[in-house]
C-alpha cells in the first residue's frame, strides 16, 4: 500500500504553470491562424472580384450575399435604386445606367445596396442577384429614417459627386435614388472615395458599367429557358452567324409618346448594310426595333434569313395601355438586349438600350453605330 502523503504543492504549481503556458501558446497560434485565414479569404474574394468578366451577364456564377457594412452603432444603412409608382424612370437602358451609378454610390458610402423596381413589373420576374445580393425586404426599411432623391434628367447633380461627403450630406438610414445618368467618372474624381473605388480607377466608364452589370444580374430560370430556345431554334449550326440591328425610330405609331430619333428615309443605309450579309446558308438577321413598320419591312426584305423574338413592342416606361401581357413584353425587351450582346455583327442606334448592349459584348469587333444618317465603327 502507498503511504498517505499530502500532495507537494510546489510540483502542482509547476505543472499548472506549464499547462497554462502551453494553453496560452496554442491560443496565440490559433488566433494568428484565424487572422491569416480570414485575410487570405478576404484577399481571395477581392482578387476574384477583379477577375470577373466584364463583357456579359454570366448566368452560371453562383450568388454570394453582399457583405453588409454596419455603421453608426452597428445599424445597417441602405441605398436603394428606386423605380416604383408613377414617376418616370426611363427605359431599360436608362435604368441600367442608374442602377450601376447607385451601386457605385453604395460602395463609396459603405452602404447596403438594393434594387426596387416594380414599374411596370417586378424585376424578380426576370432577373436574380448574381454576385451581389441586391434584394432587400421592404419591411427592413419601414421604420427607418429615409430620403428620396429623384434625379432623372438632372445633369446639374453630377458635379456634386466630385467633391461631396455623401454620408454627411445624406445621414438618413435609407437613401432612395432614381437616376438615369452615369456617375462613375464623377465618383472616381472624389478623393474621399479613392480607396473604396480603387478597382475602377484604371477602367473606362464602359468597362465599369459592364463589370457591375455582371456582378449584379443573372437571368431567372424562365428567361434563361426562353433564351436557350431562341438560340437553339434560330442558330442550329455552329457555322451560322447572327447579324443584328437595333433600330430606334422614336415617335411612331408603335411608340407615340417617344421623342423622334430617326425617319424611315434614314434607314436605307441600314438596309444596305444588312444586305451585305445575303448568304442565306451562312447568316441569320435579327432586328429589334421600336416600330412595327420597321419590323415588317425587315421581315420582308430578309424573309429567308429573318429571325425574331416574338412579342409586342413596348417601352418599359411609356404608356402601355391596351397592351396585353405587359410583363411578357418587358421580358422580350431584356431578351432582345441580351441577344444583341451575342451577335457576330452588331449595328445599334443612338440609344442607351443599344449602346449598353454594345458595351456588354464579349468581342467589340464588328460592332457599329448608326447616327445622323451614317454608320460608324464602334470606338
Automatic annotation (TrEMBL):
Q: Which domain of life is it from?
A: Eukaryota
* Signal peptide coordinates: 1-25
**Which keywords does this chain's UniProt record carry?**
Signal
- What is the name of this protein? GT23 domain-containing protein
Q: Which organism is it from?
A: Octopus bimaculoides
Phylogenetic classification of the source organism: Eukaryota, Metazoa, Spiralia, Lophotrochozoa, Mollusca
Amino acid at each position: 500500500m502507498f503511504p498517505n502523503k499530502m500532495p507537494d504543492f510546489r510540483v502542482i504549481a509547476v505543472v499548472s504553470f506549464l499547462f497554462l503556458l502551453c494553453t496560452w501558446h496554442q491560443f496565440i497560434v490559433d488566433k494568428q491562424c484565424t487572422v491569416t485565414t480570414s485575410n487570405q479569404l478576404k484577399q481571395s474574394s477581392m482578387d476574384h472580384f477583379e477577375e470577373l468578366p466584364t463583357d456579359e451577364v454570366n448566368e452560371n456564377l453562383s450568388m454570394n450575399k453582399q457583405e453588409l457594412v454596419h455603421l453608426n452603432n452597428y445599424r445597417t444603412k441602405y441605398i436603394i435604386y428606386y423605380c416604383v409608382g408613377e414617376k418616370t424612370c426611363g427605359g431599360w437602358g436608362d435604368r441600367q445606367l442608374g442602377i450601376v451609378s447607385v451601386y457605385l454610390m453604395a460602395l463609396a458610402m459603405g452602404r447596403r445596396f438594393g434594387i426596387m423596381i416594380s414599374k411596370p413589373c417586378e424585376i424578380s420576374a426576370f432577373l436574380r442577384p448574381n454576385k451581389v445580393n441586391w434584394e432587400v425586404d421592404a419591411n427592413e426599411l419601414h421604420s427607418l429614417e429615409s430620403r428620396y432623391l429623384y434625379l432623372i434628367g438632372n445633369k446639374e447633380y453630377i458635379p456634386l459627386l466630385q467633391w461631396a461627403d455623401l454620408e454627411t450630406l445624406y445621414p438618413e438610414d435609407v437613401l432612395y435614388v432614381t437616376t438615369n445618368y452615369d456617375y462613375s467618372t464623377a465618383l472616381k474624381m472624389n478623393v474621399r472615395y479613392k480607396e473604396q473605388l480603387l478597382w475602377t480607377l484604371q477602367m473606362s466608364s464602359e468597362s465599369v458599367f459592364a463589370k457591375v452589370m455582371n456582378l449584379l444580374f443573372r437571368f431567372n430560370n424562365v428567361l434563361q429557358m426562353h433564351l436557350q430556345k431562341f438560340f437553339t431554334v434560330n442558330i442550329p449550326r455552329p457555322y451560322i452567324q447572327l447579324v443584328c440591328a437595333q433600330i430606334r425610330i422614336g415617335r411612331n405609331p408603335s411608340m407615340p409618346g417617344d421623342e423622334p430619333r430617326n425617319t424611315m428615309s434614314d434607314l436605307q443605309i441600314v438596309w444596305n448594310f444588312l444586305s451585305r450579309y445575303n448568304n442565306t446558308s451562312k447568316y441569320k438577321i435579327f432586328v429589334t426595333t421600336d416600330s412595327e413598320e420597321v419590323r415588317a419591312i425587315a421581315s420582308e426584305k430578309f424573309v429567308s434569313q429573318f429571325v425574331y423574338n416574338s412579342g409586342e413592342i413596348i417601352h418599359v416606361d411609356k404608356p402601355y395601355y391596351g397592351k396585353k401581357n405587359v410583363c411578357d413584353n418587358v421580358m422580350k425587351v431584356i431578351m432582345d438586349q441580351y441577344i444583341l450582346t451575342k451577335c457576330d455583327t452588331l449595328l445599334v442606334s443612338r440609344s442607351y438600350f443599344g449602346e449598353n448592349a454594345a458595351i456588354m459584348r464579349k468581342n467589340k469587333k464588328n460592332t457599329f453605330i448608326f447616327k445622323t444618317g451614317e454608320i460608324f465603327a464602334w470606338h
